[in-house]
Write a structure and sequence with these properties.
The complex is a heterodimer of chains A (about 120) and B (about 120). Chain A is about 0% helix and about 50% strand. Chain A is mainly beta and about 120 residues long. In chain A, a hairpin with a 3-residue loop joins strand 4 and strand 5 (about 40-50). The radius of gyration of chain B is 14 Å and the shape is globular. Chain B has strands at about 5, 10-15, 20, 25, 30-40, 45-50, 60, 65-70, 75-80, 90-95, 105, 110-115. Chain B starts with a strand and ends with a strand. The chains are: A mainly beta (about 120), B mainly beta (about 120).
Amino acid sequence: KAGVTQTPRYLIKTRGQQVTLSCSPISGHRSVSWYQQTPGQGLQFLFEYFSETQRNKGNFPGRFSGRQFSNSRSEMNVSTLELGDSALYLCASSPRGAGGLYEQYFGPGTRLTVT
Amino acid sequence: AQKVTQAQTEISVVEKEDVTLDCVYETRDTTYYLFWYKQPPSGELVFLIRRNSFDEQNEISGRYSWNFQKSTSSFNFTITASQVVDSAVYFCALSGNTGTASKLTFGTGTRLQVTL
């Protein structure tokens, strides 16, 4: 079974621009979560989607948004990029939407650099 | 609020030594789930183990073992006879069962360096 895939793997953007990151979950997985990893803040939960609905959201500004498609693929968007948005963005999928009952499997991440 | 503390920032061992990574957690949920993930230099988080709060049975899997103690809110991870390939950052994580069920709260990670 193919793992979680994320595209692109690396991205360089300029302050003020917007960016869209993509995540394809493991086949059959309906829950997709997004995390931001930075040296200063560590791994932080952004949001989770299940069956095209956002079920849970972390403490991030409205510039961070996401969506999920009917095939469970997910995208996250960051508008008006700031230097502090430079991070590794990790996507994780889970077979069911029951949170901790099922472990999350992570993709390789998208490393975003904002200059 | 949920919290995971990994007090050890970095550990260096020589190959074949045993090493234990500590994890202490805080949660108000009566049912919760604990995880260990490994992040090698490639960056991808690799799932190692999940434990439910109602299952305190400790487990050994090959060179890995886990010690879950609710009384002390600890979920420690031991690597026996460490190998260079074990070098990575190890994260302990927690998720609840109500409201926060789909959210993993991670510790700050412990960087393990295994040398020859």
